[in-house]
Amino acid sequence: MSGKIGARAALEQLTGWAQGKGDRDVIEKTYKFTDFKTAWAFMTGTAIKADGMDHHPEWFNVYNKVEVTLTTHDVDGVSSKDVELAGYMDALADKLG
């Protein structure tokens, strides 16, 4: 299990992510792709990685946009698992264009 590091510490290690609004300790990012097929490829690649980590994002998809919220429910806040998955998602998004 990963220990809680908090959103602020996570954001120091990431680009383009933001602290969630409200009192939940979460990080959020919206990805925009050229089309639905590319957004779906991003979600599929992320799902495979997340399932391997046993760490699953909260997300919402409409056409070419994927809104992501990351937090680790076991520690009630942001952990190093969130930073790892966020980094993977950023790299995949860059690869997909």
TrEMBL record:
EC number: 4.2.1.96
SUPFAM superfamilies reported in the protein's UniProt record: PCD-like
Enzyme's top EC category: lyase
GO molecular function: 4-alpha-hydroxytetrahydrobiopterin dehydratase activity
Assigned keywords, A-Z: Lyase
GO biological process: tetrahydrobiopterin biosynthetic process
Catalysed reactions listed for this entry: (4aS,6R)-4a-hydroxy-L-erythro-5,6,7,8-tetrahydrobiopterin = (6R)-L-erythro-6,7-dihydrobiopterin + H2O
Domain of life of the native organism: Bacteria
Pfam family, one: Pterin_4a
PANTHER family given in the database record: PTERIN-4-ALPHA-CARBINOLAMINE DEHYDRATASE
Family: Belongs to the pterin-4-alpha-carbinolamine dehydratase family.
Record-given protein name: Putative pterin-4-alpha-carbinolamine dehydratase
Organism name: Hyphomonas oceanitis SCH89
